[in-house]
Design a protein that fits this description.
The chain has 114 residues and is mainly alpha-helical. The protein contains 5 helices and no strands. Helix 2 (32-70) crosses helix 4.
Length: 114
């Protein structure tokens, strides 16, 4: 009995991976084994960094809030503590946006806490 291989599916599978690695450097774009490894590693990095991105943005918001709060003589931790104590429900993303794009509104929030 002759050996049965599905070359159509194999070629389609390879073509799909090579299409994904198009634009990469060196053999990563056109050699099947190298491209497959590069693609799989890229997918791992993409999954991992979608989570890391959230961490980076939160730390960026905290830095911005801290810089803006220090202009009014208080640190980030004091500001957040006073916000929680006075039951002002505003998240860090919005607070950082106010500090950067609308300093008057941020100043009003800080003055309300003092």
């Amino acid at each position: 009995m002759s050996r049965s291989v599905n070359s159509v599916a194999s070629k389609a599978r390879r073509k799909k991976i090579l299409k994904q690695t198009k634009g990469q450097f060196g053999r990563r774009k056109n050699v099947w084994t190298v491209a497959k490894n590069a693609y799989e590693k890229g997918q791992l990095y993409a999954y991992r960094d979608r989570k890391t991105k959230k961490r980076y943005f939160r730390s960026l918001w905290i830095m911005r809030i801290n810089a803006a709060a220090r202009q009014y003589g208080m640190s980030y931790s004091v500001l957040i503590g006073k916000l929680n104590k006075s039951n002002i429900q505003i998240n860090r993303k919005v607070l950082a946006d106010l500090a950067l794009n609308n300093p008057e509104a941020f100043k009003a929030i800080v003055q309300q806490l003092q």
